[in-house]
Structures are given as structure tokens and as C-alpha cells.
Design a protein that fits this description.
20 helices, 21 strands, 566 residues, 4 domains, Beta-Lactamase, PAS_4, PAC, PAS domain S-box-containing protein/diguanylate cyclase (GGDEF)-like protein, five-stranded antiparallel β-sheet, PAS-assoc_C
């Protein structure tokens, strides 16, 4: 059966779809003008699926003029990608059934989600003469629905699996929803906690503060509050928690719900109490010693000392805080580089211990300072903590012990160990003069006059040696009647001058208890050339061998005379 196309109104027949819409005699837009104003696509197909009308939005979506749409077949305009989708629905509408469905409308490589509504145009005889089509873009709505659904899933997942307690509370204080972490914190099940009034599980001593803030949110006086409080636990031990509550309100400000984040801080509070006890004990301990604590905030470089340390440095009447630069001025200039905390501030090391001389209200004191760097979770330097203790007495005892270990007790000169220590302290590349000394006829003096006279001779020799060298030179008794002299930063000329002075000093007459003792000495000298590649000990051994050889050569050339009493 063939249906004749239904004659369209003049506007449809002449195809002037986008022409001036025109107005009715009362000034209102015409019906077709209203269709042009709609944001959706409006079209009319006859039974042959030929366009008889398309509104302005339809033409704009298709990107073609209205005169290129009217009279053309649906397939030509909607395209091959869309026609297989719309044809079955158009056919259904042409059968007299109203059709509404959602589909993806393709425009080249792009697609948008739309809703199509197809309404059959049925005349008074019940004959379907065509189809009115309305297509609306629902992409934004679908995206919004998807985002809402996604946000709902994300909220539920975050709520249920959060490592801290999560609670949704109504304006009446009843907990409508709680997560597993919150229930576990209270030692109860979710079913047991959900539905309870928060007041019934709050420690009685904390109820007033919590309820006051809660009521302020209900009254619209605030939207958030934070509070540390205690919850009741079946064990009888309270649960310490950090509570953060936020209001969820409607656009008009009406309270919908409150969401609370609850973090269990029971262990932290226990640790805080333990730390306070430790600090109190340490403070008492530091009051019993000379010194104190200090710390530096790395970011601000703020330096703070304990009261005991401030009193130790400045005395009870000291005014004002001690900043880092000011404290540095109390350190002896020779020790300031070694006492620097810069490597700790830069995060290059984590621990350091140093000893330095510090000016205090009681005069210069030697201090031992132990420092430790505390780091943030990302490893960056956060804080330096230190303890500084007066070790002056210990240092004096240590220095005396070191001096005794390095000193010949009879003459007060260095012993062999002390000489080795001074040699080790010699800078690389510095030439050192070495003088080897051996007394003549010393054994005969001991044998004839006894060891007490021999000791007198050794003490006198030490005195004479001190008189011919500089303060920075090093004198040593190596044992028996052997002596040595180190002349740092010497050359051949100075070495020869000092060796000659020593030989002449030893040759002077020595009288002890009315007895003239013919003490003389043989001297050998050698210059140890400074080297940055050869170890000092190796260079010294070679130079000492040369000096020793020179000494014995001089001794062989010397005539030995019998000892006579004066």
C-alpha cells in the first residue's frame, strides 16, 4: 500500500525552516519560531522518511543549511553510522507506537549520548501520516550520573576501609553509620555501635565539651570542630581519640548529617606520658651535672637551651635567650670550626661528638658535646638535639696521664713514645732537623760515683739542652745517656748551628758535690726532608740512621780522658 506524502504547511513546503520566525497578531512568537528556540533537535518525517521539517538546532547540529535538509531522506542526513540505529525506531513509530530510547549519536569520529522521542502523527482517520522526532543531548546528565555513582563508590570504599574511625551522625546525635575501624577501637561490633547516641560512649568527664561543640554545629554557629576526648571501652580502660567533625549542609544551610574522623591516640598518649617521665628524670639528672640540653630547629635555625645550661653559661643573672651565633662566640676561637654543626644542618651526618673550650660564668671550661640529627619521614633534616657536659676535670686528668706516659720522669723531657707522638703531628712536607746525642764517659761516672751522681748529670744535661733550642722544638731522653732533638721547619744552616750549640753546652764543666765531672757529648745531625709521598716514620728512620752514624763517627774521633776528682 502506498501512502501519499502529507502536504505540509506553507513553511514546510517552501523549506524556509530558518527564515524569520514571525509573530502572531498579539506579538507572541509563532509555533514554528518556538520550535527554533528549543535546545533539542526537532524534525518531521513523512512515511517515506523524507524530511518535511527541521528546527534551527537540528540544522546547527548537522552543520548544514535548512534548505539542504528539507526534502532529503533520513539516511542522507543522519549518516550511515546512525541510520541502522534510528531506522527500527522510526519504523516502530510509523506503525503507530510512541518510542523513547537512548543511543549514541555519531558525528564523524565524535559521539554524544542522546535521547530520542518518536511520536507518530495520526490523523482523524487513524492513519499515521508521519513522525515527529525530538532528540535531546543527555551527555552532561549521563556524565553527572556517572560521577555521582563513582563518588558514591569512592566514599563508601574510603569510609569502610579507612584506617581511622569514620562515623556519620544525625542532628540528634545518633550514629547512623560507623566503619570497622571505629567499632574495633571501641572493642564492639559495627551492629552494636550503629544506632547509639555518641553521648552514651563518651567518657563522662569529656561529655560537656563534646556536646557543646556538637550543639553549635546543629545551631548553625559552626561547621567544624576538633577535640581530643575519651571513649568508654568494655575493658574499663578509656580510649583516647582525636576527633574531627564536619557538617554536611543543604544549599539553604539546613544540616543534613555530620561526618566524624576519629583517630585512636591511646598509644601516643601513653608514649607522651612516658616521655614526660623520662624528660623529668633527665632534667633532674642534668641538674646534678655541669652542663645541659639544647636543640636546633633546622628550618628556622632557632637554638634553645635548657634552663640549667643557660645558667651554666651565663649564670643566674643572664638575660635574654642564647641564639646559635651568640653561643658560637662563647666557644674558644681555636675550637669553633671543630664545634660547627653545619654538617648536621645539611644532613650529611646523623651523629657527632666534639670537645671544645667554652667561656662560662665560672671561667673557661672544657665541654664534651654529643649531637644527634632527627629527620622527617622523607629523610630531610628536622631537628638537632644535643647534650653538653663539663669534662674539665676529666680532661685535666687525661692530659696529666698522657703527659706522664710521654715524659721521662727524671729529666722531664719527652720519652721515646712522646717523641713519636710529636713526629706524627708534624705536617707533611715540612723539613725536620734531627740531632742524636750520646754522653761521653757516662758509664764511668755511674760506676765510680754512683747512680745518684749519674742522675744529677742527666738532669743537668736536660737543663742545658733546653737552653739552646726554641720553645717549639722537641727534646727527648730515649734511655740511659741517649738524647734526641727534633727541630721542626729547619734547614741545614739552623741544624748545624743548634748541633754546635749542643756540643759546646755539653762540654762546659760540671761540678757536683765538689767533684768536677768531665761530661762531654757526641752529636750527630741529619735533615729529614719533607715529603708528601713518603710516610713520616719512614723518613725519620732514614734520617735518624744518618744522624746516629754521624754521632758514632764523632765519638770515634774524640779522645777519651780518665775521670779525675777536682
Amino acid at each position: 500500500m502506498t501512502h501519499r506524502p502529507t502536504p505540509a504547511p506553507d513553511r514546510l513546503q517552501n523549506g524556509s525552516i530558518l527564515s524569520g520566525a514571525g509573530r502572531s497578531p498579539d506579538g507572541l512568537p509563532s509555533a514554528l519560531a518556538v520550535l527554533d528556540m528549543l535546545p533539542g533537535l526537532v524534525a518531521y518525517f513523512d512515511r517515506d522518511l523524507t524530511y518535511r521539517f527541521a528546527n534551527a538546532t537540528y540544522a546547527a547540529w548537522r552543520g548544514i543549511g535548512p534548505d539542504q535538509i528539507i526534502g532529503r531522506h533520513c539516511r542522507d542526513i543522519v549518516g550511515e553510522a546512525n541510520f541502522p540505529t534510528v531506522l527500527p525506531r522510526l519504523t516502530e513509530a510509523l506503525s503507530g507506537t510512541r518510542v523513547t530510547y537512548e543511543y549514541s549519536l555519531f558525528d564523524g569520529g565524535n559521539a554524544r549520548r542522546v535521547q530520542g522521542s518518536y511520536v507518530p502523527d495520526i490523523d482523524a482517520d487513524g492513519i499515521v501520516r508521519g513522525v515527529v522526532v525530538l532528540v535531546t543531548d543527555i551527555s552532561v546528565r549521563r556524565d553527572l550520573e556517572a560521577r555521582i555513582a563513582e563518588n558514591e563508590i569512592m566514599f563508601n570504599d574510603a569510609f569502610e576501609h579507612a584506617p581511622v574511625g569514620m562515623v556519620v551522625t544525625g542532628a540528634d546525635g545518633r550514629m547512623e553509620r560507623v566503619n570497622a575501624a571505629f567499632a574495633a577501637m571501641l572493642g564492639l561490633s559495627i551492629d552494636h555501635v550503629a544506632g547509639l547516641d555518641f553521648r552514651t560512649i563518651t567518657h563522662p568527664d569529656d561529655q560537656d565539651a563534646d556536646v557543646t561543640l556538637f550543639d553549635e554545629i546543629v545551631a548553625g554557629e559552626r561547621d567544624t570542630y576538633t577535640l581530643e576526648k575519651r571513649y568508654l571501652h568494655p575493658s574499663g580502660e578509656p580510649v583516647h581519640a582525636s576527633l574531627a567533625v564536619s557538617a554536611v549542609r543543604a544549599p539553604d544551610g539546613t544540616l543534613i548529617r555530620m561526618i566524624a574522623h576519629v583517630q585512636d591516640i591511646t598509644e601516643r598518649r601513653r608514649a607522651d606520658r612516658a616521655l614526660q617521665e623520662i624528660n623529668a628524670r633527665m632534667t633532674l639528672a642534668m641538674e646534678a651535672v655541669r652542663g645541659g640540653f639544647w636543640h636546633i630547629d633546622v628550618e628556622s635555625r632557632r637554638f634553645e637551651t635548657s634552663p640549667s645550661f643557660s645558667r651554666f653559661v651565663r649564670g643566674p643573672g643572664g638575660s635574654g635567650p642564647i641564639d646559635l651565633d651568640t653561643y658560637g662566640e662563647y666557644i674558644a676561637p681555636a675550637n669553633r670550626d671543630a664545634a660547627s654543626v653545619q654538617t648536621l644542618l645539611d644532613g650529611e651526618i646523623d651523629n657527632a661528638s666534639v670537645e671544645y673550650e667554652l667561656a662560662t660564668v665560672n671561667g673557661p671550661r672544657w665541654m664534651r658535646c654529643d649531637r644527634k640529627l632527627l629527620r622527617a619521614s622523607d629523610g630531610s633534616p628536622l631537628r638537632i638535639v644535643g647534650v653538653t657536659i663539663d669534662i674539665s676535670e676529666d680532661r685535666e686528668r687525661q692530659l696529666r696521664a698522657m703527659a706522664a706516659a710521654e715524659t721521662d720522669p727524671l729529666t722531664g723531657l719527652l720519652n721515646r713514645r712522646g717523641l713519636d707522638q710529636r713526629l706524627a703531628q708534624t705536617d707533611d712536607g715540612v723539613s725536620v732537623g734531627i740531632v742524636a746525642i750520646d754522653l761521653d764517659r757516662f758509664k764511668a761516672i755511674n760506676d765510680r760515683f754512683g747512680h745518684s751522681v749519674g742522675d744529677t748529670v742527666l738532669v743537668e744535661v736536660a737543663r742545658r739542652l733546653r737552653g739552646v733550642v726554641r720553645a717549639g722544638d722537641h727534646l727527648a731522653r730515649l734511655g740511659g745517656d741517649e738524647f734526641a732533638v727534633l727541630l721542626p721547619d729547619a734547614d741545614d744552616v739552623r741544624l748545624a748551628v743548634v748541633a754546635d750549640r749542643i756540643e759546646r753546652a755539653l762540654g762546659e764543666r760540671l761540678v757536683s758535690n765538689g767533684i768536677t765531672l768531665p761530661v762531654g757529648g757526641s752529636v750527630g745531625a741529619s735533615l729529614m726532608q719533607g715529603s708528601r709521598t713518603t710516610p713520616a716514620a719512614q723518613s725519620f728512620a732514614a734520617a735518624w740512621a744518618r744522624a746516629d752514624a754521624a754521632l758514632y763517627a764523632a765519638k770515634r774521633s774524640r779522645h777519651t780522658h780518665p775521670i779525675r776528682a777536682a
